[in-house]
């Protein structure tokens, strides 16, 4: 699968992506810095073997059913540089109970040099358009200390849907758990 944008594209996971994911999840602080912001309470420090197995599983599932809907795609610059990924997940948690059409979107761009150039905005727009085409109602979730993604969330037309005060502990401090819903009238 390929979703083409002006400056980036989204594609299925391929074998060479695994080394990037291992570097992004186990490497030096310059590569793992994104983990301080993306659900840091969930970071479990998987080893390289576990990470490789996870992505081999994704590649295998897509290979077995190439026409199945995708719930994760890799982000690449148009020159082919792999910079991160988008994903979607169910909102089955303690904070929100919604219809089965509801899905949350996520994004990570671990490559620091690729940030603040519009790649995240373009990637999420492509991703949201794709997921809406599957009939999903779009949400996203974060925590009140993740100022970077909060700007992107608002820019793309999400509005706060639910806030649970003090529900997330990050680096010894309490933050609010936030759920946002995308305005269905937004055109992508």
Q: What is the distance, rounded to the nearest whole angstrom, between the alpha carbons of the first and last residues?
A: 19 Å
**Helix residue percentage:** 25-40%
> In what range is the share of β-strand residues?
25-35%
CATH fold category name: Aminopeptidase
Query: Which CATH architecture is right?
Result: 3-Layer(aba) Sandwich
Helix/strand-derived class?
alpha+beta
Report on the structure:
With 188 residues, this protein is of the alpha+beta class. It has a single domain, classed as Aminopeptidase. Helices cover 29% and strands 31% of the residues. The protein has five helices and eight strands. It has helices at 17-26, 29-32, 48-64, 119-133, 147-155, and strands at residues 2-4, 8-11, 72-77, 82-89, 102-108, 137-143, 158-170, 173-182. An eight-stranded mixed sheet has the order 1-2-3-4-5-6-8-7, with helices on both faces. A hairpin with a 2-residue loop joins strand 7 (158-170) and strand 8 (173-182). Helix 1 runs antiparallel to helix 3. The longest helix is centred in the N-terminal third of the chain and has 17 residues, at 48-64. The chain is globular, with a radius of gyration of 16 Å.
Which features does this protein show?
Aminopeptidase, eight-stranded mixed beta sheet
């Amino acid at each position: 699968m390929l979703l083409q944008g002006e400056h980036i594209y989204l594609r299925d996971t391929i074998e060479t992506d695994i080394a990037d994911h291992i570097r992004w999840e186990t490497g030096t602080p310059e590569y793992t810095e994104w983990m301080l912001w993306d659900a840091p309470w969930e970071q479990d420090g998987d080893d390289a073997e576990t990470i490789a197995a996870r992505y081999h599983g994704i590649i295998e599932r897509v290979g077995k059913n190439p026409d199945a809907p995708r719930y994760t795609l890799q982000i690449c610059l148009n020159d082919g540089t792999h910079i991160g990924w988008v994903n979607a997940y169910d909102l089955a948690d303690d904070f929100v109970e919604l219809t089965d059409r509801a899905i949350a979107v996520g994004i990570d761009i671990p490559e620091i040099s690729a940030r603040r150039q519009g790649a995240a905005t373009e990637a999420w727009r492509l991703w949201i358009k794709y997921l809406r085409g599957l009939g999903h109602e779009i949400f996203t979730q974060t925590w009140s200390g993740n100022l970077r993604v909060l700007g992107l969330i608002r820019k793309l037309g999400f509005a706060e849907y639910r806030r649970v005060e003090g529900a997330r502990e990050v680096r010894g401090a309490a933050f609010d758990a936030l759920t946002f819903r995308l305005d269905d009238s937004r055109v992508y």
